[in-house]
Here is the input.
Amino acid sequence: MTRANPISKSYLLEQLLQVAVAQSCNAVMITSADLDGEGPLIEYCNAALCEMTGYPRDELIGRSPRILQGPQTDKSVLLRLRRCLEEGTFFQGSTVNYRKSGEPYHLEWNISPVRDEAGKIQHFVSVQRDVS
Here is the structure.
C-alpha cells in the first residue's frame, strides 16, 4: 500500500483553497493588518468583489477599502469595525458602500483577523455580500 506524499497533499490543498476563494460567489478581500495612516490596504480581491464594486482588480490592489465608502456609509458601523480591527476580534456588519460608478449598494460583510504562528495579526480577510 502506497502512502500519499504529505507535501504533495498539502500543496494540493493550498491550490484547492486558492481556486475556491478565487471562484467563490461571495466577494472576498484580503488586506494588510496595518492600522496606521490609510489603514489596511487591499492585497487580494476575487472576481466576485470586482464584479460587485465595478472596480477592476488593478484599481483596488494597494488601495484602502475606504475607496468604497461614501455619504450613506454608516459611520457608527465603521467605528465598530475599527474597534474590532484594533482588538483583533471578528467583525460582522452591514452598511451602504459605493460602486465605481457611484451607485450605492447595501453590503453585509464579516472580517476575520489572520494571525501568524506567534499570534500576531498579519492580514484581515473580508467576505462580503451585496444585499441590495
